[in-house]
Specification:
Elements lengths: L4 E2 L10 H7 L15 H21 L6 E4 L2 H15 L6 E5 L4 H12 L3 E5 L9 H7 L4 E5 L13 H10 L3 E5 L18 E5 L10 E5 L14 H4 L7 H16 L1 H22 L3 E3 L10 E6 L4 H10 L2 E2 L1 E2 L12 H5 L4 H4 L2 E5 L6 H20 L2 H10 L2
Parallel strand pairs: 1-11, 3-4, 3-5, 5-6, 6-7
Antiparallel strand pairs: 2-8, 7-8, 9-10, 10-13, 12-13
The chain binds pyridoxal-5'-phosphate (PLP).
């Protein structure tokens, strides 16, 4: 197999070698249960405490506000269902947006089945939540607002600080799904007025099966799992020690290198966006041009099926993702692309390239040199495109 160009970092990332090194002892010499009392086990407990403290620092949170989980999905489920169940005497109304990840949307849907009501806010054509509409949706029985920090498909960064202020003015809990944002851009839970924040380790070079939920002290929330005394008696289960230590290492690396990574990512991101929009007719950028994750490119090509693009890129050794959910067994286009107003046929032709600090400008050039040819070839086989060109008289 030739060179692999991995541009699907929003789906998952490679584990950093330094992270793997930090994890190794906890599979072997130090594989003790942190709840045991002998010295080795207590050292393991200290490693978890240090991991918690180091992660807390990156968010301006306190150590006892970080709860380790198994993934972003678990963190979202716990935050939303836990707050809803613990606050049902106060009210049973929640607010979210139409472009959230399914971990949020399906948690909301599950609460609706229990008799809660949920407002799903529209977003504008760039995927931004309108803070005025959000405030108008607040009712006396609203208990929680859940809005993502940045969207996983189109990379749009939401006005989190403003939303946090609105929530706190109305005495409502604010949950943020920061799975795509944490360790990629700076986050401060205090200045952003965030009460709960979900994170997933495998999105920033830690291993799959790791994550955490930040829960601000004093937040009323039910336990996620009952059992032992782990995670301050709120999320029982023997800790994934190696995973936790590795995630803390990945956090440290990402934060130390963040400024440099953001700068290089933005250069490569904008190079790709500019070239593709210029060299491929009938293409458009999905998501906000400026309020955008440094690693996200999402471009729609008219008269193209996203899946065909992915297969053609795969043949060239490029891993990417499309905006359509066909790969997950459904023919529906992505709910995010529909929510930003794209008609079905345009939503089907979207391509997401998510780069990382390991992506080089040569990788970007290779993709940009090849994509126009691929799009041309696919369009030449499209009857819709043929009709369109005929009608235009070209
Ligand atoms: N939230 C967002 C925004 C995501 O992008 C993802 C994963 O892609 C998740 C939640 C779920 O995270 P995990 O894969 O760790 O369950």
């Amino acid at each position: 197999m030739g060179k692999l160009i991995y541009m699907d970092n929003a789906a998952t990332t490679f584990v950093d070698k330094r992270v793997l090194d930090a994890m190794m002892p906890y599979f072997t010499n130090e594989c003790f249960n942190p709840s045991s009392i002998y010295d080795g086990a207590q050292d393991v407990k200290v490693a978890i405490d240090n991991a918690r403290a180091n992660i807390a620092k990156t968010l301006n949170a306190k150590s006892n506000e970080i709860f380790f989980t198994s993934c972003g999905t678990e963190s979202d489920n716990w935050a939303i269902k836990g707050v809803a169940h613990a606050n049902k005497e106060k009210g049973k109304h929640l607010i979210t947006s139409k472009i959230e990840h399914h971990a949020v949307l399906h948690s909301m849907a599950s609460l609706e089945k229990e008799g809660y009501s949920v407002t799903y806010l529209d977003v504008n054509e760039n995927g931004l939540v309108d803070t005025k509409k959000l405030e108008d949706a607040i009712r006396p029985d609203t208990i929680l607002v859940s809005i993502m920090y940045a969207n996983n498909e189109i990379g749009t960064i939401e006005p989190i600080k403003e939303i946090g202020e609105i929530c706190h003015k109305h005495n409502i809990y604010f949950h943020v799904d920061a799975v795509q944002a944490y360790a990629h851009i700076p986050i401060d839970v205090v200045s952003d007025s965030i009460d709960l924040l979900s994170v997933s380790g495998h999105k920033f070079n830690a291993m799959k099966g790791t994550g955490f939920l930040y829960i601000k002290r004093g937040t009323k929330i039910t336990n996620f799992m009952d059992g032992g005394a782990q995670e301050f008696k709120r999320r029982a289960g023997t800790e994934n020690v190696a995973g936790i230590v590795g995630m803390a290492k990945a956090t440290e690396i990402a934060h130390n290198e963040m400024k440099e990574r953001i700068d290089t990512n933005i250069k490569i991101r904008d190079y790709i966006i500019e070239r593709l929009l210029k060299e491929i007719p009938y293409s458009r950028l999905n998501g906000d041009k400026n309020k955008r994750l440094p690693n996200n490119v999402n471009i729609g090509f008219e008269f193209i099926e996203g899946e065909s693009l992915l297969l053609a890129l795969n043949d060239l050794g490029v891993c990417a993702s499309s905006g359509s959910a066909c790969t997950s067994g459904s023919l529906d286009p992505s709910h995010v692309l529909l929510a930003i107003g794209l008609p079905h046929e345009k939503a089907h032709g979207s391509l997401r390239l998510t780069i990382s600090h390991e992506t080089t400008i040569d990788d970007a050039k290779y993709v940009c040199d090849n994509l126009p040819k691929i799009v041309d070839r696919l369009r030449s086989m499209s009857p819709l495109y043929e009709d369109f060109i005929k009608n235009k008289g070209e």
